[in-house]
Amino acid sequence: MSVVDFIGKIHELSSAKSVWEFSLREFSKCGIASLCHGYADGKPDDAPLTLRNNYPEPWKNIYYQRGAYRYDLYAQHVATSTSVIQIDGLQFDSKIKEDSLLFEEVNDIGNFGINNGFIVPLRLAKNDGFGGMFIGDIPADEPDPHGFLVTHKHDFLLMAMHLDAKLVQIATRDAQTEVNLTKRESECLTWLASGMLNDKIAERLKISNSTVEFHLRNARHKLKTRTREQAVAVAIGLGIIKI
Length: 243
Prior knowledge:
The chain has about 240 residues and is of the alpha+beta class. It has 2 domains: about 5-170, Beta-Lactamase (2-Layer Sandwich), CATH 3.30.450; about 185-235, Arc Repressor Mutant, subunit A (Orthogonal Bundle). About 50% of the residues lie in helices and about 15% in strands. The longest helix is centred in the middle third of the chain and has 28 residues, at about 145-170. The radius of gyration is 19 Å and the shape is globular.
């Protein structure tokens, strides 16, 4: 299935369960073995508000129920940054050693194959909630995992953006939220959501690159988001734009 087909199909689904199961299948076909999507509220060491992943139960018990997530350097990253980063195995803050039993359990259980991929920071529109999505675990027989990730990064991030948007839309579809975007702001966001860059959007709309950036910046401000990608996700989630 192409990225365009994935995007079209995911926005036809109506339940979080069907969206998640469909996404797991399609990412798996692309060589991605693990997905994790969740939001916390306020601080890096807060428990997740929402959480979906396909990690093994022993790992989920130690990471979430026992609280190892509080020491995860990547969890700290998504709480304070909007930049996508590539990872090579999970890394923990040295403070985890203060909990000797937990530290021993983490070392014993290892990464459970959570070895390589991307961490994508996410933001909620109306509060200080933050979240992230992990996309990864390239098969061991892939001769060049790093090259594989770099080659497919754009497609994976576009798929992740729409997966997040749909899950947020389902979670908030009963909320009454009004955001008034201009026609041009909506058009620029819609073409951005389809994967176009600024120059192609400008060409399509017969306006300048700087004007495209002006409209996208205004849309970010109105949607209370920090990046263009988050603005797209929130706009789709609120039903302001459609793909």
